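Project standup — Tuesday

K.O.: blocked on the structure for the chain from last sprint. Re-posting the sequence here as requested.
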Amino acid sequence: MGDYMNQNKIGLFSVIVIAVTSMVGSGWLFSAQLNAQLAGNYAFIAWVVAAAIAIIVGLCFSRLCTLFPERGINAKCTAVSHGKDFGMIFAFAIWFGLLAMIPTEAQATTQYLNPFIKFITLYEHGSLTIAGKLTALIILLVYFMINYFGIKLLAKVNNISTVFKVSIPVLTIIILLVAHFDTTNFAIDTNKYTFGTVKTALIGAGLIYAFNGFQVVAAFASEIKNPKRNVPLAIVISILFTLGIYMFLQLAFMGAIPGEIAAKGWSHLNFNSPLVNLTMLLGLNFVVIALIADSIVSPSITGMTYLGACSRMLYAMAEQRQMPRWIAKLCPKHNLSKRSLVINFIISAIILFNSSSWAALMVLTTAFNVLGYIGAPLALGVLDKKKRIFYAVVFVMLALLLSTLNMKDFILSNLAISIMMVVYAGIQLKNGKRFNLRSFSFIVYLWLLMLIAQFNWAVVVLSFAFFFYATGEQFVQKSKKINRLEPASI
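H.V.: unblocked you, prediction finished:
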């Protein structure tokens, strides 16, 4: 059995491909326009900042993978450091954040297909129709079938499709730069945007969303050869490669906007399918065909990769007894929990039928992703105390990022986390188990963060105080209800 398991592990190249595949998804189809709207000429700085945040958080995850090269460690890291009750908050956030991205990718494909399918309407009045949602459901089913036969098939599909998936954005960039590039566009609205707008664009324009795929590497840690070397390498290389694509795409998009449209200001851009609408406006019909093809391939490969990652995370939570234990059963042939895969598919379908469009889910999804990221520095503040100050800075950085949420999405994300923890606590008590009330300290912190979000200095002070409180020896010892796992030898 051990030899079979080793044969099913994947190398550095396949890991990088999976990460790039996850990052070049639906984001590249929409983010260039959203970033221009929110950040103007500061859009390029926004991409660099987003990539830097992704690398820093990614290296935190890679450190966790070095200590514990296990299936879905990014979902259970705070359970290891603080106990399963406290860890449930972050496990839920990171799992649900990735899970919500799966129907988002299917929605993106359906939305891009709408102008070219004449016999039925898939998208109108800013949302998917019933026919559109059924089409997206069929796309979800394809994601499920690819994942059902294990990571080796998923890796093969990724390796083959990523060549096409990456080549279309590169081709689009080159053609837009050659066809029409107006340097005067970059002199528009120079006084309207500032460094402050960069902060808003990180979540609002989908930049953090676009780079979120780096954490998929951590989810697959136990199925990667030499994780100590390959996990951090794959995270950094894939982020830098993807950053290059997004930077050039932003340049090409903003330079290709016709002067009469650009003159109205970046905030007035309102393309429904930005790249398709722009290339059609420039008469580049042959590029439109390639974009439509890639709008099917890019989000679909990303969606099926996220579905695979989510199945590993749900398995990890079940293994930690944060979810029903019966989920944590591996199929010996394909080395994955098919029960977990089925559950994730069903929940993805439910989210799909209760949301309207790509934009409707993107910001809220990102909020859950950032909440999930926060668990990594908190866990490492306990497990890797020599670098505790560095992890405190990462924690504060993510808190500042979270503070850019609009009030509606902040309330929704906080409410979802709060309700989930109340339900979880009720289940524990009903089953005759104790629940550690200290786990609600992070919930209290989130509500306080929402109230002071407009004051950066207050966010910094509150976040530093909470970090050192939550990673202190007394808090950790009293909050833990399960034994800490011993670090694995690598």
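K.O.: great, moving the ticket to review. Strands lie at 123-124, 127-128. Residues 2-357 form a domain with the Amino acid/polyamine transporter I fold (CATH 1.20.1740.10).
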